Amino acid sequence: MHEETVYDALDHAHGGEGQWAFGTGFDEPLAGVDTTVPEGIDPADLGAYCLMLGDDALVLCQRLTQWVTNAPELEEEVALANCGLDLLGQARLLLARAGSVGVLGRSRTLATGSIPDEDALAYFRDADEFRNSALVEAPNGDFGQTVVRLLAASAWRLALFTRLRGSRDPVLAAIAAKGVPELTYHRDHAARWVLRLGDGTPESHRRTQAGVDAVWPLLADLFTATDVERRLTAAGVAVDPAELREEVRDVLTLVLERATLAVPAWPAEQPSRGRAGEHGPELIALLADLQGLAREHPAATW
Questions:
Q1: Of 8-12, 66-70, 248-252, which gets the smallest average pLDDT?
Q2: Which of 6, 75, 111, 169 is most buried, judging by how many CB atoms fall within 10 Å of its CB?
Q3: Does residue 13 have a pLDDT over 70?
Q4: What do you get for the CA distance between the two ends of the chain, in Å?
Q5: Which three-class secondary structure state does DSSP give residue 27?
Q6: Which of 151, 130, 160 is nearest to 216 (CA)?
Q7: Is 41 helix (H, G, I), strand (E, B) or coil?
């Protein structure tokens, strides 16, 4: 008698049709949502903006999953993995939105002219096609540096998503509304760890301060708008990142001071190289891990 395996069950659940081995074939992330681009909004700009925010989430997710089996506590391992899963969900929605407005890359999979899904955009773009910031791209460092980076990234993203709930693009507004409670948890979880470590032992204080000093320069390009962001802000779709500066600085300063950590001077702002597709070897190495299986077996099915 044939005994059904979990893979058989997955296959049968989708009518016996082979499914992608990397997550597609299941419910579309924007199923049932009107993805029509509102009048007066350039679809190319909207797609580029969603790539920026989606790539930030995808790359930071990958960084957080590198702590699985390495975190200092089992409970923390689960917490970081859950933060990563939240970000993965945001990445799926944002990359799906980018694909729905016709964003295409240069890779063989995306060069067909068909509308790319979130998997194609995640797995088959090269490093120079990614639009993530330097903050999420940098290596993890030790645990202290990781929670400082998570605090900075989630404080910035939460401030942005809170405002994007009023975006003229209903899809972007819905993604932001869903992300606000997730990012609130990420920020508060990271803040508790920074307080615990900064005001802990001399060694935990030293390591966390070193993490702050390593992360702070990475904030330099978060608050300088790209041309895409300027146009979309004028159209009521995006938010000028300069509007976020004071709120984010206040949050980070409050946490660091309560953690008895020195607050470094705010870095001089500069245009983002990452938003222009200029990345270091760190992203190439990260993408090799993220994309390796999909690229080795591009037509794999269950």
A1: 8-12
A2: 169
A3: no
A4: 22
A5: coil
A6: 151
A7: coil
User: Which pair of structure tokens corresponds to residue 67?
Assistant: 């702590």
C-alpha dihedral sign at 231, 232, 233, 234: positive
Domain ranges of the chain: 41-296
Residue pair 254/190 in contact by the 8 Å Cβ criterion:
no
Burial of 263 by CB count in 10 Å (0-12 exposed, 13-18 middle, 19+ buried)? middle
**Two tokens at 96?**
């799906």
Rounded Cα distance, 14 and 26, in Å: 8
Cα–Cα distance measured from residue 176 to residue 118, given in angstroms and rounded to the nearest whole number: 17
Chain Cα centroid distance, residue 110: 21
Structure tokens at 215: 């992360």
Q: If you classify domain 41-296 with CATH, what class do you get?
A: mainly alpha
The alpha-carbon radius of gyration of the chain (Å, integer) is 20
**Residues 237, 169: contact at Cβ < 8 Å?**
yes
Q: Are 137 and 286 in contact (CB under 8 A)?
A: yes
Asked if the model's pLDDT at residue 302 lies above 70, the reply is no
Q: Which of 86-90, 102-106, 151-155 has the lowest mean pLDDT?
A: 102-106
